[in-house]
Design brief:
The complex is a heterodimer of chains A (97) and B (331). In chain A, 21% of the residues lie in helices and 12% in strands. Chain A is built from 3 helices and 4 strands. Chain A is elongated and about 45 Å long. Helix content of chain B is 52%, strand content 8%. Chain B contains 13 helices and 6 strands. In chain B, strands 1-2-4-3 form a 4-stranded mixed β-sheet, with helices on both faces. Classes of the chains: A alpha+beta (97), B alpha/beta (331). At the A-B interface, helix 1, helix 2 and helix 3 of A face helix 3, helix 9 and helix 13 of B.
């Protein structure tokens, strides 16, 4: 059973023109968002993307962009209260992670 | 620290130093390791489960033995070493402040800079004759393989998501199957995360339930505990079957189900019950939404969107329920 999160929210973008088809994004993606199609990476279903940022960071030609972040309500709340970016505070014994 | 892994300490200025002859070891998972895992899951002195960062020798590694990088969270380290049973390897433990690989990668502590620092500081280059380092796939959100290559000369090979697939990964010549690359979130994965959530909210809701009980509101004490269990246990357990994609909606549904399940035992009419359903569904929804942090597939964009809608709705339902209950008292 595949669990999917909200529709049409992921910030994942792929610039095919820059892609060299190395396939590293297929290796690092934990949700099989990418496939190789005629020697280029392609997005299978962007709704599967959790915005972990692994693909963008490991793309040698910067063909992928995504607004990386933690999909954690507690982190968003903390960030909102402290006026910072969402931070899961996993370092201080919180319940997340 | 398990005694069956030998720590190699490289002294500064002794760049050509050879590692001491490694002792022969096993990769046993002991009763102590089991207890440590259990305590960590229940949040008992969780942050003390750290392994000293550095390079470790598993078995009798040689210059051609594989190198595996990992986090210095005890559960991560134990998963790595126990799944390499029968192998000789070098384990490079990064300083992730006692956080597991995936969360640390998200924060960048399991990252390009820490990996680079660790490779340099341990003198790994002098110990092995090859230039490959195997990382857990879930370290990838913090590590840029091409940058590590540029900084250290080492090629990063992303291994499988789960350490238990490592031996198969090696057998396939350093290749992971599509199945090995996928993060799962099955019943067991979810339910082992429930205690952390339960303990966190029990700190607030059990004293609240006790106060309600002492104030003579026994039914509300029971419903408070019901909402706590709905949000922190039913949501993880029944996640795929609760309605909607939104965790707030799933939490609210679990809360309503808990109120409905308790209703035959409660001496309330429809009005009283409806008002309480609003209050306790809102509470369960709030707790359920927090499970996004433990889930393996929610995105920040999604959580933000969900919170913009759910937070006011939860507050409104909670207050409306209280107002309805209060109004009844004066009618």
């Amino acid at each position: 059973m595949i669990l999917k999160y909200l529709r049409g929210v992921a910030t994942l973008k792929l610039d095919s023109a820059k892609c060299i088809g190395c396939g590293l994004c297929l290796n690092v993606c934990p949700h099989a968002v990418f496939k190789l199609e005629s020697r280029k990476a392609a997005i299978t279903d962007a709704d599967l993307c959790m915005e972990c940022g692994a693909c963008a960071l490991n793309c040698p030609t910067a063909a992928i962009s995504v607004k990386k972040g933690v999909g954690c309500a507690q982190a968003v709340r903390m960030g909102f209260l402290k006026g910072t970016e969402p931070d899961c505070g996993c370092g201080d014994d919180s319940s997340c992670c | 620290m398990s005694q069956n892994v030998q720590k190699i300490i490289m002294l500064p200025g002794r760049k050509s130093a050879q590692p001491a002859p490694p002792e022969r070891i096993s990769s046993e998972y002991t009763a102590t390791d089991r207890l440590a895992a259990w305590k960590a899951r229940w949040g008992i002195a969780r942050m003390s489960y750290r392994v000293k960062p550095g390079l470790y020798a598993l078995g009798s590694p040689s210059a051609s033995s594989p190198v595996f990088a990992g986090a210095n969270y005890t559960l991560s380290f134990n998963a790595l070493r126990t799944n390499l049973k029968g192998l000789s390897a070098w384990l490079l433990v990064l300083d992730t402040k006692g956080i597991n690989v995936w969360c640390a990668a998200g924060k960048g502590t399991f990252g390009t800079m820490e990996l680079t620092r660790s490779i340099r500081q341990t003198g790994l280059e002098q110990l092995v004759s090859h230039k490959t380092i195997i990382l857990p796939q879930l370290g990838a959100p913090g590590v840029s393989a091409h940058q590590v290559k540029a900084y250290t000369g080492f090629s990063v090979s992303y291994g499988p998501v789960r350490a238990k697939d490592l031996q198969e990964f090696l057998r396939l010549g350093g290749k992971a199957t599509p199945e090995m690359r996928k993060v799962r979130f099955n019943f067991t994965d979810r339910i082992i995360l429930a205690p952390v959530q339960l303990v966190y909210y029990a700190k607030y809701l059990l004293p609240a339930a006790l106060l309600l009980y002492l104030a003579g509101l026994k039914n509300d004490a029971a419903l408070t505990v019901g909402a706590l269990l709905a949000g922190s246990v039913i949501v993880p357990a029944l996640l795929p079957w609760l309605p909607g994609r939104s965790f707030a909606v799933k939490g609210a549904a679990a809360g309503l189900a808990a109120v409905a399940a308790l209703s035959p035992l409660l001496p309330f009419g429809p009005y009283q019950l409806a008002a309480r359903a609003l209050v306790y569904a809102a509470a369960a929804s709030f707790i359920g939404l927090d499970f996004t942090g433990a889930s393996t597939y929610t995105s920040l964009s999604g959580v933000k969107k969900e919170m913009r809608l759910a937070t006011p709705a939860q507050a409104l339902a909670f207050l409306a329920g209280l107002v309805l209950l209060g109004a009844r008292r004066f009618l």
